[in-house]
Here is the input.
Amino acid sequence: MRIIFTSLLIFTGILSAGAQTTDSLYLMPRPQSVKINDSRFLFTTQFTIGTQGPASRKLTAAVNRFYLQLGKRSGIYFPQEYITASDNNADAQLSVRYSKEVSPQIGVDESYSLSISSTKIALSAATDIGAIRGLETLYQLVAPSGQGYYCPAVEISDSPRFKWRGLMIDVARHFIPFEVLKRNIDAMAIVKMNVLHLHFSDDEGFRVESKTYPKLQKFGSNGQYYTQEQIKELVDYAHDRGIIIVPEFDLPGHCTSILAAYPFLASYPANYKPAKRYNLDTIKNLNSMGFMGIVKLIGTMPTPTIDPTKESTYTFLDNFIKEMSGLFPDAYLHIGADENNGVAWKQNPAIVNYMKTTGIRTTDDLQAYFVKRIYALAKKHHKRLIGWEEAFNPSLPEDVIVQKWKPFGNENLTNNVIKHNNQMIVSSGYYLDMYFPAYIHYLNEPVSENVSPADAEKGVLGGEAAMWSESVDEGNEEIRVWPRAAAIAERLWSAANVKDVDDMYRRLWMLDFELNDRAVEENSNYLKILARWVNDEDITPVKTLANVCTQVKGYKRLAGSMLASGAVKPNLSSPMVYIADVVHSDSETGWFFRQLVASYLSKHDADDLQQLKSQLQRWQNNKVRFNALAANYPYLQQINDLSDQLSDAASIGLQALNGEGNKDDQLKQLQRMEKPLHEVQLAIIPEIEALVAGKLKPQPMAYPLF
Here is the structure.
């Protein structure tokens, strides 16, 4: 894709061979202050590193990772075999100086300064974690030239805007293997995220080995869980990169997998086993209700819920929290406390009687009572409690952190939380499972307009990208999270006024190469699924199609799976190998095509015109090769209409460039093509419409949820 559009980038100055400007760098997140000078530092076989500061295992490991990665990138044999704390020569070409070694924690000083001249690189930080952040910036500055690999001469001063910059991964609904989590940690380190929030339990699964309550993994995991040794290794792995791990065990709802192991905790008797939360198979006339009708129905259905009125519940949870607190040494424990409609409690006479005798008026009040009891247990075991926004109530202790997630309906929540002296983490607007393009998340400001700067500083810790896994498994998790999570990482690290979308994408695509080179397997998993469709034959025709498709936005697909009928319905073991499972939420090809269309409509340049025609001809002609493959592969036959649509759209684009055809008819055809096929859409339809109409419409600033 980059090869096709290289000439466009040169014409627009992005790959200028002259003096660099701040905007020509590929840093992500963008530092707070960057000054570029005229010279450059060239890496040679004489390149050495010296560290000056107290002994730090984290820093030593980070310096050696940097050294090895730089060697692989440049192909240069460097003189130091392994760098240790004794390699403290201040005259080394790269000097890493820091004042103290600290444990990863929220609020630790992560600032650093970086000074690069033609002969010296000086990285300075107050802490070893700040130095680790600076090393990531330094690596992103490395670039090739005809003379070798170099860094531009710069002066950088940098620190994060927010203290909490997280990624939540739901490992309960679909199990995400240990090695995949480690790769996500590597990617988080590259973009300076510092919190990995793992949603370990839900109705579909309980994913951590418990030695105190071993039935949890025996009956609640279907054999898919992390051993305690793996958890310890994961914590160490994250800490080495300046990242903490926050475990979430969702209570009192979302707990079928827990009740499958210990049914005495339940609010009503049932044959519990790990499964989706809502069983809609017995509902008559389901399809006639529509999704919003189902949402209303769900609000009246009892769901598996912990009984908060029995002391045996708290004895169990006391022992459980004690064990998990020893396993997860960081300061926080997330208990979920979301989406409990209270129906299971209302239908239990014993619970209703308890509420009457204790003066608890509503199920919301009963939930508040439960949260307060769990708060006391967390406090006992030296943990600070976190809950989703439903946990917030007038009696909530002030040191509980509230995580905002709902996309609408509670505009005053942030002010109310801060007024109550609680702090907040923002995930509203950062739900990756909505499959919005990166710019939607990027432009989502974590601090609401009605919140004063003083209140924001006091009460908004930061934010988290969230990847729920109803439609994610080990094969496509990295495709779904990266590189979009990097846009959220920048929103949480960089200054609030850094919000140029085109520049963000320019840097994001380059960062995506680095993420795949050093961390995730996003691209290889993408190609693996495409290759599976054609038994590893030439995948060029299917890749050409998939590269310009994006999944439908919002929760349309999730709603469709809930409404599915017939003998075969999606379940927890359903394969995620279809085109809607693999395509990215942003089309890189589509983005470059949009830039080319914009350039052509602005200047009507002959070179732009030729590039457009060449690209459209490739898409138009792809149909022939795709059909030849489809003759032997069943899945390609299923999506053949999508391939035809791409060819037809490209034909209309060529007609427009040649001044042929009826514009009204062409626009009507293109409007019909905007309708999804196989739960995906062609990302280049608006741009081809622009070629017909002569005007490129702005990208949508919002998408519907359903």
Notes: The CA atoms of residues 197 and 246 lie 5 Å apart. Residues 1-19 have pLDDT under 50 and may be disordered.
